[in-house]
Amino acid sequence: MHDFPLYFQLGLTHILDWQGYDHILFVMALCGVYAWQDWRKLLILVTAFTIGHSLTLALSVFNLIPVSVSLIEFLIPITIVITSLVNILRKNQNQSSWLFTYLLTLLFGLIHGMGFSNYLRSLLGNEILGPLLAFNVGLEVGQLAIVVVTLTLSYFILNWFRASRREWNLFLSSAIFGIAFTMSVERFSALFFNR
């Protein structure tokens, strides 16, 4: 377990890497309809995402489920498109819509975990469990950092610029939707036309 700091750092930098910003966009999209007072709900959502990606990350690293890199790379921006679209179309935040978001986040975590596995599998040696745990903890800390930055930005937009939560959600979710939709189109053509 002496490699814990190394794999923790790899997980942290992997989630916060601006070159692989699709995971950052997904976590930001999750935050779209929330403000600081909703931090408990958001923490539960991020944990659901972590549970999902930890499960498939472990299964993929142990070669228990097959991973098509090009398909997963296409599906990751699709998860962001759907999450952003759900935010845009959501009229209010009731218990059934929150449960739907929770289950969707858990499902999308499964997809993102397979994307992480390609990166992690190339780094692992003989020991797997310790590095896998450290990598997941690093990912979780990175995700929480994204949540803190996004909620802080939301706080300033809502309180200094007096935007409504609905206006902020529409702006943030629409911007993320546009970026993710472009990524989806690019990766779709790479998936089906660059064989």
From TrEMBL:
Instruction: Work out whether the entry's keyword set contains Metal-binding.
Output: no
Family annotation (InterPro entries):
Put_HupE_UreJ
Q: Report keywords, A-Z.
A: Membrane, Transmembrane, Transmembrane helix
Q: Name one Pfam family in it.
A: HupE_UreJ_2
Q: Which domain of life is it from?
A: Bacteria
Q: Where are the bilayer-spanning segments?
A: 20-36, 43-65, 71-89, 101-120, 132-158, 170-193
The name on file for this protein is HupE / UreJ protein
Origin organism is Adhaeribacter aerolatus
Which lineage is the organism of this entry classified under, starting from the top rank? Bacteria, Pseudomonadati, Bacteroidota, Cytophagia, Cytophagales
